[in-house]
């Protein structure tokens, strides 16, 4: 892959909360079309890393280059950067005062300044893609967890982001709903959407991603292709972590 | 005067019924306007007090915001912490004596009730904003919305719903508390009643009428607000949408069929 394809380039990123060091010297990059899965035990800093990429947390040191521009710089407009980098959360975070359609339109209209008709057409396109078009009139409280997450994905997609970040999108769901959400994500990966996914779904990470990052204690312990990580891990911590998932 | 209690009430109503109504209307007007403006003040103060300060913000912004928040805090604490009656005296007569400002009685009345309600509402709004789970703020930020956009489109509509009971509380308190404005000469329900009671020396009868009117006003307001709350909640069910509204067992609303219609290329 060539240099100009790189969307996000992370250099020496670290994050501390008080005296608690959560991320230490993280380096990795994401290019167009990459599906990067970040795996690792709870508390290893996966979610914090993802939140740093979307500036929901401010990195303590290091830089996050977005097309070569350091977005941790104070002069960068965080809101306009975020409109290019979508995020899907573990707890969906839908807007409870709006129905499904409005949830997918509000960002387009307020941030991208699209008119209502365009925003609606676009929202319907992506809602149809995640199989939620029939539910446009429902409020979030009337939906199941899996449905909410699919709406959240449509909401993020409607902004037509360059990269979509997923923060444990299936961790709050039961096995059946996990299936329906992963199915949507599989389709998106197949269409070439650039995604960074924090997940505990090892089979999904192995099948869908082209780059796997294993984190332990705030550092990247090992990274490589799914084949390298899942079939031939080098790091002792990776072996230990994966042995629990691969046993079954 | 008739000997019976009911008879005396009838006489008072016959002679002073219109005065009671005018007094009640004044009370209601001051309470409604005061609560409405107070809510606006409360929302403005509440929004400013919840503006997040980030580490990378410039020093000027941090200092300005700090000063603004301090002033607003002082406003809230002072007006919540002192009696409205004393404030009325201070603002109406005090400004006249010290600064030679002659504000009209009515302006003073609206001003005092609004600014008092605003101080209480500021804390209520802050509570309402805190009651909305921060995940929705993150959700809005993640699609690139600014603090102001997040507040107006996502957080405040929900906060407003959550604080409706407290707005009702404030309205009812204001209807009753307008009676303290009688000391600056506003002829509202309490002032009227005192006059009527003095004219015939019928305190029990006159204030019975006043109490009934106060109760009717507050009870009506509380019911109307309750109704408004359920309106804000919206219906409990929803209709499914479909590509073909004529098909059996399909929904009520139509969305375009992507197989039939040309879709905008997005990816």
Description:
The complex is a heterodimer of chains A (248) and B (267). Chain A has 248 residues and is α/β, with parallel strands linked by helices. Chain A contains nine helices and ten strands. Chain A has helices at 46-53, 78-82, 100-110, 116-129, 145-158, 175-190, 202-208, 226-231, 236-246, and strands at 6-17, 20-31, 35-40, 61-66, 69-70, 85-88, 163-167, 194-198, 211-216, 219-224. In chain A, helix 3 runs parallel beside helix 5 and helix 5 packs parallel to helix 6. Chain A starts with 5 loop residues before the first strand and ends with a helix. Chain B is mainly alpha-helical and 267 residues long. Chain B has one domain (5-241): Orthogonal Bundle (MetI-like fold). Chain B starts with a helix and ends in a 13-residue tail after the last strand. In chain B, 32% of the residues are buried. The interface between A and B is large, with 50 and 38 residues.
């Amino acid at each position: 892959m060539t240099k100009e394809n790189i969307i996000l380039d992370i250099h020496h990123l670290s994050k501390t909360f008080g005296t608690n060091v959560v991320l230490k010297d993280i380096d990795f990059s994401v290019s167009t079309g990459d599906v990067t899965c970040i795996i690792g035990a709870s508390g290893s800093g996966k979610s914090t890393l993802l939140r740093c990429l979307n500036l929901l947390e401010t990195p303590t040191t290091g830089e996050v280059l977005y097309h070569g521009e350091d977005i941790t710089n104070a002069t960068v407009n965080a809101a306009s950067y975020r409109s290019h980098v979508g995020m899907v959360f573990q707890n969906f975070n839908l807007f409870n005062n709006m129905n499904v359609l409005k949830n997918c339109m509000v960002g387009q209209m307020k941030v991208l300044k699209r008119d209502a008709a365009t925003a609606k057409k676009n929202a319907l396109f992506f809602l149809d893609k995640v199989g939620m078009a029939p539910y446009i009139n429902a409020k979030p409280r009337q939906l199941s967890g899996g449905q909410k997450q699919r709406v959240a994905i449509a909401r993020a997609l409607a902004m037509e982001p360059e990269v979509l970040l997923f923060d444990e999108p299936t961790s709050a769901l039961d096995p059946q709903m996990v299936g329906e959400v992963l199915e949507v994500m599989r389709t998106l990966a197949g269409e070439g959407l650039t995604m960074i996914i924090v997940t505990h779904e090892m089979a999904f990470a192995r099948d869908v991603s082209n780059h796997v990052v294993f984190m332990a204690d705030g550092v990247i312990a090992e990274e490589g292709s799914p084949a390298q990580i899942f079939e031939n891990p080098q790091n002792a911590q990776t072996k230990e972590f994966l042995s629990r998932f691969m046993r079954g | 005067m008739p000997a019976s209690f009911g008879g005396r009430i009838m006489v008072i109503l016959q002679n002073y019924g219109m005065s009671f109504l005018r007094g009640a209307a004044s009370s209601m007007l001051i309470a409604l306007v005061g609560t409405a403006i107070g809510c606006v003040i409360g929302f403005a103060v509440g929004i400013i007090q919840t503006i997040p300060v980030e580490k990378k913000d410039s020093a000027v912004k941090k200092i300005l915001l700090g000063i603004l928040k301090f002033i607003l805090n002082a406003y809230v604490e002072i007006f919540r912490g002192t009696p409205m009656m004393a404030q009325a005296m201070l603002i109406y007569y005090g400004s006249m004596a010290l600064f030679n400002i002659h504000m009209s009685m009515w302006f003073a009345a609206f001003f005092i009730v609004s600014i008092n309600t605003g101080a209480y509402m500021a804390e209520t709004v802050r509570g309402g904003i805190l009651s909305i789970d921060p995940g929705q703020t993150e959700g809005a930020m993640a699609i690139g919305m600014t603090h102001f956009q997040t507040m107006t489109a996502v957080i405040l509509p929900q906060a407003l719903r959550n604080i409706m009971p407290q707005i009702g509380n404030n309205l009812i308190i204001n209807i009753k508390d307008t009676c303290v404005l009688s000391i600056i000469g506003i002829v509202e329900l309490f002032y009227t009643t005192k006059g009527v009671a003095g004219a015939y020396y019928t305190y029990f009868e006159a204030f019975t009428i006043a109490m009934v009117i106060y109760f009717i006003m507050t009870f009506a307001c509380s019911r109307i607000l309750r109704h408004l709350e359920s309106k804000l909640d919206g219906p409990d069910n929803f209709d499914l949408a479909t590509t073909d509204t004529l098909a059996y067992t399909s929904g009520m609303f139509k969305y375009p069929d992507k197989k039939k219609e040309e879709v905008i290329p997005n990816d």
